[in-house]
């Protein structure tokens, strides 16, 4: 009789651990989802800002067609990207193209003095800061989630419940390209 109670007690403890681990992993997964949605909202704002910025630059630097086309292609690629890895790569291309576009203002004093351009550049700068903060928050949430599925006792149940490792929103191989100052050639 006492062996039955011990077995029942062990089963109850295991069930409690499984429920506790499951609930914690669900909460961590929801945090990752929310953080990704925050990035997505800000990226959509950035994508909406790009055409206005390109149109403003067109009036002053119409012979810079290649740079303008690169920005539009990068924006379209970023809009159609799916998942953190693809979005990260596409957004990095867009960041580089936008950097080259903003660098054009140095070569065109009239453009640099244009109030519309200044406002759009300021909005873009603000959005870039918000996106960077959101990426940090997302990557922190992913780190906590990934750690959570690898820690005991959750590690015993995570695979069984379908929890798998998530990818970071990282600059990856293009980190040197994004960190390098854009070069403008005439």
Query: If you compute it from the alpha carbons, what radius of gyration comes out, rounded to the nearest whole angstrom?
Result: 24 Å
Main pleated-sheet profile: none
Quickly count the helices.
Answer: 7
Give the topology string: H per helix, E per strand: HHHHHHH
**Helix proportion range:** over 70%
Task: Walk me through what this model shows.
The structure is a single chain. This protein has helices at residues 2-60, 65-80, 83-107, 109-113, 115-150, 154-161, 175-179. The protein is 83% helix and 0% strand. Helix 1 (2-60) packs antiparallel against helix 2 (65-80). The chain has a single domain (13-163), classed as de novo design (two linked rop proteins) (Up-down Bundle). The protein is rod-shaped and about 90 Å long. The longest helix is centred in the first third of the chain and has 59 residues, at 2-60. It is mostly helical. It is built from seven helices and no strands. Belongs to the LemA family. Its main location: membrane. It is found in: Membrane.
Features:
de novo design (two linked rop proteins); rod-shaped; single chain; mainly alpha; 7 helices; 83% helix; 186 residues
